[in-house]
Amino acid sequence: MKKCVLGFNAGSMKQTGIARKRPWPGGLRPLVLSALFMNTTPMPGAEEEAESESRQAPAAKVEKATLGAGCFWCIEAVLEQIEGVSDVESGYMGGRVKNPTYQQVSAGTTGHAEVVQVTFDPAKISFEKLLEYFWKLHDPTTLNRQGADVGTQYRSAIFYHSAEQKEAAVKSKRLLEEKGDYDDRVVTEITEASEFYRAEDYHQDFYRLNRDYPYCRAVIVPKLEKLGLEK
User: Are 203 and 105 in contact (CB under 8 A)?
Assistant: First the structure.
């Protein structure tokens, strides 16, 4: 079982102001200066123009992909660097217990897999291309295991969110098997997505916030080097 380190980065606040103790030349004081040069009232028609532009700009279409490939720290560290991916959340899916904790999932009794839920723009990266990274970042032939991480929670899995994703996943898996890169059979399960349970806060962005953690140096860094990504 992996040991977890809880940490956070404190935010900072900046406050800016104008102050002057003595009168300004000609009797002007800071309040008057503020009224003259810091008036935030928009020019006539500015608000209407901004609203019009907002209505005309179509919202970017995004899709979800949910993938299991061993420890979710590893998957997140890779996929959050991919062009077209806007968000990656670590969590749990595919189990029998509602709102599972990390301790419960790690015990292997809830049936959940450690997964990441990826939000991506299909105009920038296709689901099929995302799966190419998925295959490369783990070994899809080891049943319920990735390296030293052993248990059903570490199984290789694609949880599809639509019929199109299911079809793409089945095809992608078949093509991988036909390439013959592996001596053993690809054991990745392809299952309809169920409820996603977001993992505890200390699991989110784990690699980015804990690069010197021993597990990160030993397991995640080699994956990033293999894929030519930032360490």
Answer: no
- How far CA 182 is from CA of 34, 78, 130, 154, in Å, comes to 70, 22, 20, 19
DSSP letter for each residue of 196-216: -EEPPGGGTTHHHH-TTSHHI
Residue among 78, 69, 72, 67 nearest 4 (CA): 72
Q: Which of 230, 227, 228 is nearest to 137 (CA)?
A: 227
Just list the catalytic residues. 71
User: From the centroid of its chain, how far is CA 169?
Assistant: 20
pTM: 0.75
Read off the pLDDT of residues 105-157 as tens digits, 9 standing for 90 and up. Answer: 999 999 999 999 999 999 999 999 999 999 999 999 999 999 999 999 999 99
Closest CA to 31 of 41, 44, 43, 17: 17
